[in-house]
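Expect chain and fold; see below:
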Amino acid sequence: MKSLINNSYVGAFLGFVVPILSILIAYLVNFREEMTVSQFIDGVLVLKIYAKMMAVAVYFGNVVCFFLFIKLDWLKAARGVLLATIVYSFIVLIFRVGL
C-alpha cells in the first residue's frame, strides 16, 4: 500500500517544522517555569547562541526523521528531509559567518 507520507513535499515540510518543535520542546522541558517564551527568545538573541541552537535542533531532529523514513522505506520523504536540512545548513552558515 502506498503511503501518503512518502512524498518529498511532506518530508520537506517535516524537515522544516521538526527543528522548530525541538527548540520548543527544549524550552518546555528546561525553562518553562523560569521564564516566558519571549524572555527565552530575548536571551537567545542577547547571548548570540541562535546559530548554535538552530544547528543542534536541525541536525538532531532531522537526523531522527531521516533515519526513521529510511527505515520505513519512505525514500521520497527522506529526500525532502534532506533538502530541508541542507537549506537550514546554509542558513546556519550565513548566521555563523555573519553575512
Notes: The helical segments are 8-30, 37-47, 50-71, 75-97.
